[in-house]
Every structure is written in C-alpha cells, then in structure tokens.
Design goal:
SAM_dep_MeTrfase_SAV2177_type; SAM-dependent methyltransferase; 260 residues; Rossmann fold; alpha/beta
C-alpha cells in the first residue's frame, strides 16, 4: 500500500469511486458510502449527475478552442476522464490532474503512463503555489494562453476558514483572457432539511468535511467572472436534454462555467 494511505478512515475520493462503480476503495469507504446511500434516496444519482455535468462542461470548453486543462481535486480515474474528453476534441490537448490523496496519484499515473500530454501531481489545491511550482504544470500548461481550470465537486470540502474564493482567485489571477473556469458544488437549496445533520455527521468521520453552500455563496466563488448561459444552475439543467433535466439527483449540485 502506498505510503500515507489510511484504509480505515473513509476517504471522499474513494467513496466517490465506489458510488460510481469503481473498485479502488476499502471497506471503510464502502461502509460510509453505503450509509449515505441508504439515507439519501437520490444520493447516487447526484454523484452521477455531477459526473455527467463534468463531461458536458469539458466538451463545451474544448469546443471553444481550449486545449489545456488543470483538474483540481481530480479524484480517482473513472469513465469520462477530463483528458479523454478533451483529447477527443483536441488530440494534442494537455491535462494536469491535481490531488492531495496519494492513492489517487498512484492510479492516475498508472493510467497515464503512456501519455506524455497528461500528468498527475500530488499537491494541495488549498496551497496554489505548490501547484504552480510543479514541473508537470510548467511543462504542460502555458498560462499565457487560455486554460480550463476545473473545481469539480471539490470546493464543498473546503471550509470557509480556508477561503475557497481565495483559492479560486489564485488560479483565475493566473489565467489568460479567454480562459474558462468550471465549478460544481453541493447545496442544500430545495433539499429536505432532515438530511442536513445526517450528511454532515457522516462526513465528520471521513477524510474531509462537507460544507454545503447556497446559490449566492457558490456564485461568489466565481469572483465576479461572467458566467455563460444558463449561469449557475442545478447540474441536471446545465446544457442538458429533457431526460437529464428530469433526474432528481442533479438537484443536490450547482454547476456553471465562467469566462475570463
């Protein structure tokens, strides 16, 4: 087992992997994820709806000509990874995955061993300078050109004291004009109030706490950058067809894209 991995503490990346049908998880991850699934009838659909949003968002950004991406808090590789979608539009696209979890990096590097256009680095997005100082970022990302920066279902693991808006600003300050910022974030807007304590107490026993935010709080994370239509909406309604829009799980997560 790679150094630094604790199989006995539920890990949010491995829980996400389990819910999405992956195999890179331990009993503690499956137990807590199972508890949440039993408590939240459409919880699994929420994660899947968010993953589908990510796919549509990356395809949209790539279609605007963006051919380099930084995926912050990337999580374990699964179907529809950022590099796969980006390179289906731009075969030469560069992608850097960033995660603090050593097991994520082990699996990502194994997946990317033969791809010199994509890299995975172990760094804490809460300390942006460690990301910018990475050799992989220096090699693959040119901040003088437009870049896609992705915070997919990660900022809700950042507490207010850790200044999520400041973290985002550190990256948007580096972004060239024409760059795109993708954010998705969990919310309790329009959600059953009796589930709040269940979810929060569950994540208190995991590797990161859950910090739900409302629409206006999430909108402020974009630091005033203009959002493309339809703005910040529930992920099942962002550039979605009728079937996707009817998916109830998407109501747990807001998503949007801003352009610098």
């Amino acid at each position: 087992m790679p150094q630094g991995i604790d199989p006995n503490t539920p890990n949010v990346a491995r829980m996400y992997d389990y819910v999405l049908g992956g195999k890179d998880n331990f009993a503690a991850d499956r137990e807590l994820a199972g508890h949440l699934i039993a408590s939240i009838p459409d919880g699994v659909e929420a994660l899947r709806a968010n993953r589908r949003f990510l796919g549509r968002a990356i395809a949209h950004v790539a279609a605007q000509g963006i051919d380099q991406f930084i995926d912050l808090g990337a999580g374990l590789p699964n179907q529809g990874n950022v590099h796969e979608i980006a390179q289906s539009v731009h075969p030469h696209a560069h992608v850097v995955y960033v995660d603090i979890d050593p097991i994520v990096i082990v699996h990502a590097r194994a997946l990317l061993a033969a791809d010199d256009r994509t890299a995975a680095i172990q760094a804490d997005m809460r300390n942006p300078e460690t990301v910018f100082a990475s050799d992989a970022v220096a090699r693959l990302i040119d901040f003088d050109r437009p870049v896609g920066v992705i915070f997919n279902a990660m900022l809700h693991f950042v507490t207010d004291a850790e200044d999520p808006a400041g973290i985002v600003a550190a990256f948007t300050d580096r972004m060239a004009p024409g760059s795109h910022l993708v954010i998705s974030h969990s919310t309790l807007d329009d959600r059953p109030a009796d589930l709040v304590e269940i979810i929060r107490s569950a994540y208190d026993n995991a590797s990161a706490t859950m910090n739900f935010r409302d629409h206006d709080q999430i909108l402020r994370l974009f630091n005033g950058l203009p959002l493309i239509e339809p703005g910040l909406v529930k992920v099942n309604r962002w550039h979605a067809d009728a079937e996707e829009a009817a998916a109830s799980g998407g109501a747990w997560v807001y998503g949007g894209i801003a352009v610098k």
